[in-house]
Amino acid sequence: MAKRGDSAKGAVASVDPLASPSHLPLLAAFVAVVDSGSFTAAARRTGVDKALLSRRVRALEQALELRLLNRTTRTIYVTDVGRALYDRSAPPRAEVFSALEQAAASDKIGGTVPVATAPALSEEVWGPVLVELAWKYPQLEVEPRATETLVSLVEQGFDVAIRMGRLPDSSTVARKLACWRHVLCAAPSWVQAHPEVRSPADLVEHWILYTDVPMASSWRFERGDQGLQVKVASRMRTDNGEVMLAMLRQGMGISALAPFQVADLIARGELVRCLPDWRVGHQHGVYVVLPHASHTSARVEVVAQAVARRVSERELSWRRLGD
Fold it and tell me: Which of 17, 130, 187, 306 has the least C-beta neighbours within 10 A?
């Protein structure tokens, strides 16, 4: 059986350095030196120490039992077998570099990011966020899709979700951005027409019930150290936040909504906070929800961070309104 140093010494065909992953850094060093014309130039070009490049090329030669480069004090010469190896490895190297470039390009700040979001966050959060992202990243397309339903991100094609309230147990990863409490409010006309409402216990017959949440009819209220559990009964029910707001603004009853739903309406005087000595006992969160714990693409990350900044800007005012 012939040794590589004998009959096979002049031919590269008997050894495929790409077949061993451990040879790839050695091959990369050899290619860099050939491309650059010297070890010094290759070191400048790659940022790898000159001595390390030399050791890697020598290790490749030892592994192949071939002389790839002839060195002098001033220059290097590529041997015939070295040139054959360089030429033969060119096509797969081009494919690898192309694959790396495509992978990097796919994660630049561009492309489309489908986002599942709670409808209540649309105006308060998404308006400013979309303006910011449009200016900073003109190649980025963000598609917020408002839905009351807790969707499956992977199955329904969402890259990220912005949710509020309680989250179900799942394999998704949630980052908590803020805490908030519901705000008890009604139209000024309703408050004037119902001076008898002085305590949460008086709300039972006047409540507009939002049915699309767990325990929607059971509310805890707090005043200092005092706590009061109220079970509301209502002939007015809806599973749509916009319909609920419309009923409140028309003076049809009283209810508790998220601060980001009512902050502007209270500021404009269309709604007023009721029973301000009391606050809703339940606390909830705003979350960024990602489908996986592993790598998050750059374009998804910039969307998540923009939402986080906007929520952080508004959290203090939400807390003031709810407390």
Answer: 130
How do beta strands 140-146 and 111-117 pair? parallel
Size (the chain), residues: 323
Question: For 260-306, how does the pLDDT look when each residue is reduced to its tens digit (9 = 90+)?
Answer: 888 889 999 999 999 989 998 888 889 998 877 556 788 888 899 99
DSSP 199-267: SGGGGTTTBEEE-SSTTTTEEEEEETTEEEEEE---SEEES-HHHHHHHHHTTS-EEEE-HHHHHHHHH
The whole-model pTM stands at 0.62
CA triplet 30, 35, 40: central angle to 5 degrees? 75
Residue 242, C-beta contacts closer than 8 angstroms, at least 6 positions apart: 119
Considering the domain delimited by 17-106, tell me its CATH architecture.
Answer: Orthogonal Bundle (1.10)
Which architecture does CATH list for 111-180+285-322? Answer: 3-Layer(aba) Sandwich (3.40)
Q: Where in the chain is the domain with CATH 1.10.10.10?
A: 17-106
Residue 109 zone, left/alpha/beta (φ > 0; ψ -120 to 50; rest): beta
Residue that the structure tokens 């050791």 belong to = 55
* Architecture category of domain 183-282 in CATH: 3-Layer(aba) Sandwich (3.40)
Cα–Cα distance measured from residue 321 to residue 78, given in angstroms and rounded to the nearest whole number = 75
User: Could you give the residue range(s) of every CATH 3.40.190.10 domain in the chain?
Assistant: 111-180+285-322, 183-282
Please give the torsion angle defined by the CA atoms of residues 276, 282, 288 and 290, in that order, rounded to the nearest 10 degrees. Answer: -170
Q: Which residue has the tokens 């799942």?
A: 170
Query: Phi/psi of residue 70, each to 5°?
Result: -105, 125
